[in-house]
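Quick entry, no commentary yet.
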Amino acid sequence: MHGGFGMLPFQMRSKVVVTLIAVFGASTGCATPSAPSPSTVARIAPIAATPRVLAPIAIVADFTSDHRPSAVRAPLSISDAELVAQLFPAHLTDEAMCPPRVDGSTLESERAKGLVVPRVSAAVAGSFTAPRRREVAVLVHVGECRPYGFEAGGSKRLVVLDGARIVWQSGASPADEMFEDDLEAVSDVDEDGVDELVLEGSSMHTGHARVTARIVSIANGSLREIFPPTDVVEDDCPTDEPGATTRAARIEVVRATTPKFTVRWTDRTACPPA
């Protein structure tokens, strides 16, 4: 258990210290206080082994609310600048430093030349690579210089931290490029003891806004998609067309080795007055 001793309540830390003194004091000849009773040790031992009890049916992500939990960013053990420097040793610190785009350049070529302006865009806590880990999943906006077309938002890099150490990150090849804007943690939908992530992306075409979501697992350090990209918000209000409507959905799951997902939509509602 990472940082286990520091996370114990004060009273229990005192009991653990007494136990350690009793064990090591006997071998050094130091006077030792009386050892704790077996019942005391029994109360200490199960702390790390207590399993989580999760509801068999749960809401994975709710896009019908304006108060999204992903808006609260988990704290990191290192600064954003330190994380960015680990991921991109060569990078720019301001978009104004980007040179004019060269014809034929791609997101990959911009990254290779260090023409990126990275920033941390989201972070959530959980156990993502193995059970009972204390990790933080971080979504990093790579910020390639002068992207265009469907690449206009630039790519993203998904990273998992254990303290200040990077224990996993998504690949940098074009096949591994990610374009989601946000993420949320989900408590173990496939009953393997590891939390999953909801990756959320948004797009707009001729005033029709869409949000999609997919769910991935990084158990054992391997990215696996367990729920494919699916529309969860349909908003035609930006078109200003007569009769334009909007609707949103929530994703529910029945937890199992092979989880069953359901997307439940709200009724379409008229757009609010401009």
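second:
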Amino acid sequence: MKGNAPFSDSDPGLSFSDSFDDLRGDGIGPQCKVRLHTTGGLASWPMPLEVVAGRVRGGIVRVGDSPNLRMRPHCSWVLTVGGEVIVRRGRAEATLRAGQAFLCRYPDPDHTHYVPASCPYWQNFFFDWTGADTEVDELRARSPLGVEWSTTSGTVRRLRELLARPAGLVEMAPERGAVLVRELLAEFFRAGAVPEREVPASERLVQNALRLIHSRAQFGMNVNGLARALGVSPEHLARVFRKSRGQAPSLYLREERLQAACLLLESGDLACAEIAERLGFSTPGNFTRSFRAVYGLSPGRFRANCRHRQPIGDTST
């Protein structure tokens, strides 16, 4: 992979897309990619996964609940560099052009983004990580679908510098990786988050439900327990949650438990039956059927795939 020199804002006449001319190509998919690897940090810290700059032809669709078996469930910050992309979340839709960014999580059946067939291409620049799910969900709830983003921002510069590395895999100190994610989320907040007092009470209930789900899904929480912790009836919670997220809270809880299962399968040695019990599935068979329905393979096969995953390129410090 060819390295790319970080861009400079010294030319006041430089347009947004011109700043990324060195990342352009004529094919489909990423022209420049680096995987990020961190070890030894705190379990609660966000962990960077990869930075990619690429181009996608018009008509390509990315649905948020499509299984991505190459990596664990994750969050993404996506910046449009050229062309346009249509982003949908629930009933909301927006067309984003150069200089606008959005946040998303995978899997998320509420999210879709695609390049309209009338657009020749969509040039993008994105950063993936795991963790900080609660912050991402709150930012998405309190922000428009797309926010304005400067190519001269500190986070974009740091991400571009990572892409300049000649290797396909970069070793990163865990504290540095966590700070990079937090700084990006703080910048997104400054760019687009509305004051909390403007968030409707129903949406605050959903935000609080998401916080609890993300912090307790690994302990087998169910909808009745969630409603009890929030001080509302299960029926009211289900009605408000479905209106906001487009799905029942029970389904969302199941997806979070399965994401927690992915982490346990990838990073630990617990037997599948122990994971099923820890996450609150009624039987190991129910766990296996639920996992296969979402990811298209059994928990055991998922673990085997993770253990045989091959690194990209050499490490670089």
